[in-house]
Model the fold of this input.
Amino acid sequence: MATAVAPTAYKNYIGGEWVSPASGKGIENRNPANTDELVGIFPASTEEDVNLAVEAAKNAFDSWRLTPAPKRAEILYRAAEILVQRKEDIARDMTREMGKVLAETRGDVQEAIDMTYLMAGEGRRLFGQTTPSELPNKFAMSVRSPIGVCGLITPWNFPIAIPSWKMMPALVCGNTVVIKPAQDTPLSTYYLVQVLEEAGLPAGVANIVSGTGTLAGSPLVNHPDVKLISFTGSTDTGRIINEACAPAFKHVHLEMGGKNIIIVMDGANIDLAVDGAIWGGFGTSGQRCTAASRVAVHKKVYGEFTEKFVARAKKLRVGNGLDADTDMGPVVNEAQLQTVMKYVEIGKQEGAKLAAGGHRLDTGKYAKGWFFEPTVFIDCNPTMRICQEEIFGPVVSVMPIGSLDEAIEVANGVKYGLSSSIYTRNINDAFRAQRDLDTGIVYVNAPTIGAETHLPFGGTKQTGNGHRESGLAAIDFYSEWKTVYMDYSDRLQRAQIDNSE
Ligand code: NAD
Done:
């Protein structure tokens, strides 16, 4: 597979064919580190294209669901092998389309590889239960059934990892899928679909329709033949999708915003905590749903931590993610940059102390991109908007706290509940924190980012709606339990009645 050196006009993949969108229109995909560079032109799809894709997925469903799961899994296994070979090419193009540094885009592809192998393994498990019946000569078991056509809607910050979190479990369970990738990063998702095609996935089993949320995402959510929606993105969009799914009782999985925290207790390894806060706060330019955008530091070590943290943030090298000496790339687009700039102004007005950064970078090598300085506010109050609202950029707010109880109250005092972390050497504090932090993910002595694919991933409160990605939790979402009773007694047996004498 060649990387997209020359701008290519990409097509949708529907029913095993690469087809142009009905609108005949395209959406430009530009490099956020250099907007002169056109990465590709992607279909501006509309309801017509979505309808074709859903029809193709519906038509493919019966033969795919009846394909033995280990055979389905063999295709995933081959796809994982191809992804391993293509890792570097895909990672480079991912940096070109969304900006994060090469080490991180390699990690993004690796996550897709891990997930694909993991779900290939599930093809020989997909375990249900067998259990004794309460009645004689009766057999009881539960099996997993596929659900049907799944509509998958993904964000731009993990352009191949998140699509793989949704596609691989959906496919191994016997569902067919239509994916609508984020408008900013369709190329990485195209590569994933292309790899599945090369691995031998039958026509119609996976389809990609690219375009905007309103014109392509919304018709997918509302299509009557789509039985399941899995969405990752902002809480505002998630709410719209949840409401749209309600009338038809669609299965719906929402992974949404976060306002994650690192707690640094007295007695913690401060240098380790600084390393974690830098990586958690500025990795992917702060545009991870699990980004550590808040740090709560015990007063006894507040001075030492903030001094070291601010000094390190100032030293981060901002630039094109493809350059080996870049620590932090641009933000994804102009709108995201405007949001970051708006929140920096809000922070200043709220009285937080700007200790590092705070400015757009737009001269010299930054002139053509969406660059912003790594920014640190200190002496923040937990009720400030910069400590409550998701900024999704390289801005970290540091707050002093006086005790673990206070830290947990601050941590839980936001509407989101994705990830949290505590740095401590006190075993009691560590255990209390993992019990009391109201987030779907808790780290001890590690930053808020770094999920592994074989464990559940997701959040509480307005981050999620109770489901999880990854691991066996994903298998639970993409399959429906069917309970089967086999009575071989040759007589009417009545549960709860005939066994009570
Ligand atoms: P977004 O909500 O703007 O868009 C996400 C996807 O939804 C895109 O593909 C978009 O085109 C589509 N969409 C938008 N409106 C739609 C509609 N009305 N109907 C159907 N689809 C629609 O989010 P984004 O800016 O792409 O991503 C950033 C957000 O994603 C942040 O809030 C971040 O926290 C969140 N996120 C969460 C997780 C998680 O696992 N919890 C992971 C990554 C990102």
User: Anything to note?
Assistant: The pocket of nicotinamide-adenine-dinucleotide is lined by residues 153-158, 180, 182-183, 212-214, 217-218, 221, 232-234, 237, 240-241, 255-258, 289, 390, 392, 418, 459, 463 (CB under 6 Å). The longest strand covers residues 34-43.
